[in-house]
Amino acid sequence: MHPELSPLGRTSAYVEQYDPSLLFPIPRQAKRDEIGVPSTLPFFGSDFWNAYELSWLNPRGKPQVALASFMVPADTPNIIESKSFKLYLNSYNQTRLDGVDALRTRLQADLSQAAGGNVNVRIVLPEAFGRERMAELDGYCIDNLDIEVDHYTPQPGLLRTMETGEGIVEETLVSNLLKSNCLVTGQPDWASVQIRYRGMAIERGSLLQYLISFRQHNEFHEQCVERIFMDISRECRPEALSVYARYTRRGGLDINPFRTSYTQAAPANLRTARQ
Q1: Overall average pLDDT of the 171-189 stretch
Q2: Are residues 16 and 118 in the same domain?
Q3: CA distance 115 to 112
Q4: Phi and psi at residue 204, to the nearest 5°
Q5: What pLDDT score was predicted for residue 117?
Q6: Which residues bind substrate per the record (predicted)?
Q7: Measured between alpha carbons, how far is 181 from 272 in angstroms, rounded to an integer?
Q8: Annotated catalytic sites, by residue?
Q9: How many Å apart are CA 173 and CA 193, to the nearest integer?
Q10: How far apart are CA 119 and CA 13, in angstroms?
């Protein structure tokens, strides 16, 4: 269950008959220990996955296609390695199923077992494709700030608050400049990120410098978001904090981790233009 033993970076045969053993779970705890996430989680949330390459056969052998979204709770013990997820979904390509309910039941059972907790599955059939929406992350975009950047690995010490005379503030800030790299292969991962907080005002230039500092950092999406959450929590001490990143897709999958200490509903799982 170590990332180095996953299918990442390896030549993989594409199996086209249903095979749940292709899923490769990776425990969250080792990275959480490294990041400094306490055993009592300081956040809740989910990892939102969207699959754009899902197909199977009906009982008469005719191909069917759909979109699917998966909500994996942040308190499940495992993440699912993304290439193994892709290989698993492709194992349905030549698999005959009685209908979409049979597909959903298999997906939910297999993914819940791999994650170690209940995974919610939503299937969108072609007749509903036209109702799918796109939207950019809400908030003030800080990307036009004129800053100097010379750090490209995470530097939490860059973060700082400032005295505004207004006391506690609440705001939502957005950047499209988050980039990190795959933990195993080093392939680039691109994302937009939304930071919502209540507390002393965070100096926006320092936040942008900090987010850009992930540019040469190797870590999975879920781990990057938890690192951002913990670094802002330690350095800026907000009363409440949310971090939501929407990563561009690879292999027909995108991953969008959300972590929050607010009491709030999960955000709408709407893809951005880059996704």
Answers
A1: 95
A2: yes
A3: 5
A4: -65, -40
A5: 98
A6: 80-82, 221-222
A7: 20
A8: 182, 189
A9: 8
A10: 26
Asked whether residue 181 falls in the same domain as residue 107, the answer is: no
| 218 and 127 share one domain | no
Whether residue 266 is contained in a domain is answered as no
| Residues 160, 90 within the same domain | no
Whichever domain contains 177, its CATH number is: 3.30.1130.10
Which of 83, 112, 131 corresponds to the end of one domain?
131
Q: What is the pLDDT of residue 2?
A: 64
- Residue 139: pLDDT band with limits 50, 70, 90: very high
The 3-class SS string of 260-272 reads ECCCCCCCCCCEC
198: helix, coil or strand?
Answer: strand
- Asked if residue 81 belongs to a known ligand binding site, the reply is yes
Q: Residue 251 annotated as binding?
A: yes
- pTM score of the predicted model: 0.94
Residues 144 and 253 in one domain: yes
Structural domain boundaries, residue 151 = 140-260
195 marked as binding residue: no
Provide the angle, in degrees to the nearest 10, between the axes of the packed helices 204-212 and 221-236: 150
pLDDT given for residue 7 in this prediction:
65
Neighbours of 127 (CB within 10 A): 7
Residue with tokens 């059972």: 109
**Could you give the CA distance from residue 104 to residue 106 in angstroms, rounded to a whole number?**
6
| Residue 222 in marked binding region | yes
Q: Domain check: are 33 and 72 in the same one?
A: yes
- Residue 216 · residue 152 · CB < 8 Å: yes
Q: With residue 204 as reference, give the H or E element that holds it.
A: helix 204-212
Report whether 133 belongs to an annotated binding site.
Answer: no
The H-or-E segment that residue 178 falls in is: strand 169-181
Pick the last residue of a domain from 96, 131, 166: 131
Mean pLDDT of all residues in 252-260: 97
CA geometry: angle at 108 spanning 272 and 54, to 5°? 50
